[in-house]
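Hey,
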Amino acid sequence: MPKTPVKNLDFVSLKSDFLNFLRTQDKYADYNLEGSNMNVLLDVLSYNTFYNQYYNNMALSEMFLDSSQLRNSAISHAKELNYVPHSKKSATATVDLVVRSDQTSNFFNIPKYTRFTAKCGDRTFSFVTTESTFAGRLDDERFQKLNLVITEGRVITELKTTKDLTLKSAAVDTDSIEVAVNGEPYRFVKDIFGVGKNDKVFYVQAEPDGFYSIYFGDNQIGNQPATSDDIRVTYIISNGSAANGITSIVISDRYLNGASSIVTTLVESSVGGREHESLESIKKFAPRAYQIQERAVTRQDYAILLQQRFPKIQAISVFGGDEIDPPQYGSVVISVDVSAAQGASDAEIALYDEYLRDKTPLTIQPIFVQPKFIFIDLLADVKYNSKLTTLNPEELRVTIKNELATFAESYINGFNSLYSQSKVVKLIDNFDEAITSVDVTAVPYIEYNPILNLPDSPSFNFGNELNKPYAFVESQGFSDYKPAVYSSIFTLDGIDVTMQDDGQGNLLATTINVPTKAILKRNIGTVDYETGVVKLSNFETSEYEGNAIKIYANTKAKSFESQQDRILELKASDINLNVSPVSSIKKAAGFATIGSTTQPVYNPGSDISVAGEGE
């Protein structure tokens, strides 16, 4: 019997294959297969084959973590790797309390699970303390508690049996789970290392549909409660990320423990709330978590552990302390950037540090540093054939800008990143067949926010070799001189100036609002053209333009990169486009103009006009 190769899995193709097979049979040579009852049988056979193929394909896909499309399947595979997908996480806020009470003790007790009420818009949230604490006496009538950390959510307690240990709420914050058996507390552990058969411990595992359960050690890797034991599980039900950013919090019981009043002052708004771990995250981190085994040895281990535990981290860079200046041997340097902020707050860094404390070798000290941002000011001159597109210049400008912003988010913005001039030009050139030429100029810059009227000697590292100009000759003027480093406007000694280098490694302050540009002050800093390090010396200003002094650098290469604790970022507001139509020029196949990285002739940050038809 001849074989019919299966080339396609859709119904029409399957039926066509069956028809072709039957037509090759001598007994059906003159038979009208599609005009007889045989056609119905072929439909049934094709549908049956199609459904079986579809089912088998989906079933086989769910058998592997990489190809899983259902979260429950990924959770099941993650169990084999001893990976527990993270639950919802409660946000935390920091408050100060001032308690007015006539009690004689020097300490005012604040019990565990003391409730607070918070409002955000039209929603109300509950916060609680997660441990007992106290306020110290402030004066004869008042007590004070500073920097009290409170956690969002409602506290519930479930009575469980050894046959039913699945928690009833899928919104549980698993970090808050506490277990007591016959009134005796059991401690949570993540792995079995060092656990004896009599140790009173419990474990947590994920269940289908977002639920979680606890389990015990079966008298092998921990004590196993009896079926008659009283098992009580207390945990917090979280609202996840919805409780982030709350700025209005008061204590619910203002007369706690006989107090006449309690005043709550917010120190730090709520942060850290998050949702259940996504399917994509489980597929990414489950194999990596198995690889690192809850310990940080390599650079990648630190990054995986932190991103797995704190999903708010959107970018992270880890490097050795021997790579910084001056070197700090025996340390690992970590720089973190979180979503919706530049860098991480002190409270978040404290959480990161505490989390890593028992996961690093004894001789290695993690050091957290704030990231340093290098922004990109980009100007693109785009010319297009107006006869080949229905878009007007403004429509083309907006769509190209949106495309560049999306490209930057995916391929430029972040640690250890590369701005590729050729890729940006190619992106614009391929955007529309009507585009005839593209000229791009990209200049990295660093924002500096000095304290006014206070001398400072900061250092800025562009991390790329700069385009060293010829030595500046004052008698020849500034008209043709293109410095490697220059800045936006600031005020020095009551005069508006900018800074630029002199081609010999020194920074000058030059006037702007005079008929002839002149040097106001020499040697206000230095430039290292090879390393891209710019240093200011006893710099003092009384005012500056905009939100920061922008220090620009012309790199030697058209493409440049960020390393270590530096983040490269192309903001949408820094994408400037000149779009103008032409009517007769045709695009040369495979060619696009790539602009230089020398000092641009435009004013960075200025509005860019769009030329109309015929200009």
